[in-house]
């Protein structure tokens, strides 16, 4: 059995109050019930860039059109059955009101309230980075 290699674009949607929009993974999906930053697979076979995937996925998943995004970091993470390459983008300007467009729960949370135990392991370094940056900004 070969291990799946998946490239993912992830949007950290942050508002002026420094709250971040998160969604809950649906039952029946990989890592169901965990909270996550919205995003999705990069269609590399179609020549899609991570930033193009970010714009497409955030429109499909949470109903926004990204006006500005900046790459925060790219991380690789290995699960037993798949290898992920995650491109994390800060999104601080968009059109529309974010909501779960695919039936998933969603909410705004303050950076300080992000609980690593409620997120997939691959997201934990990003949560730590966001909390460090928020503490330095205070």
TrEMBL record:
Gene Ontology molecular function, alphabetical: 8-oxo-7,8-dihydrodeoxyguanosine triphosphate pyrophosphatase activity; 8-oxo-7,8-dihydroguanosine triphosphate pyrophosphatase activity; 8-oxo-dGDP phosphatase activity; 8-oxo-GDP phosphatase activity; metal ion binding
Per its UniProt record, the required cofactor names are: Mg(2+)
Q: Which PANTHER family match?
A: 8-OXO-DGTP DIPHOSPHATASE, NUDIX HYDROLASE FAMILY PROTEIN
- Quote the protein name from its UniProt record: 8-oxo-dGTP diphosphatase
Per the record's keyword annotation, is Magnesium included, yes or no?
yes
Q: Keyword check for DNA repair, yes or no.
A: yes
> Could you say which protein family the record assigns here?
Belongs to the Nudix hydrolase family.
Record-annotated residues binding Mg(2+)?
Answer: 39, 61
Q: Which domain of life is it from?
A: Bacteria
Domain Nudix hydrolase residues, every copy? 4-133
Task: List the catalysed reactions.
Answer: 8-oxo-GTP + H2O = 8-oxo-GMP + diphosphate + H(+); 8-oxo-dGTP + H2O = 8-oxo-dGMP + diphosphate + H(+)
Q: Which gene encodes it?
A: mutT
Q: Spell out the Pfam families in the cross-references.
A: NUDIX_4 (PF14815)
Biological process GO terms, please?
A: DNA repair; DNA replication
Binding of 8-oxo-dGTP occurs at 25, 30, 36-39, 123
Keywords, in A-Z order:
DNA damage, DNA repair, DNA replication, Hydrolase, Magnesium, Metal-binding, Mutator protein
Q: Which InterPro entries match?
A: Mutator_MutT, MutT-like, MutY_C, NUDIX_hydrolase-like_dom_sf, NUDIX_hydrolase_dom
Q: What is its EC number?
A: 3.6.1.55
Which PROSITE patterns does the record cross-reference, listed alphabetically? Answer: NUDIX
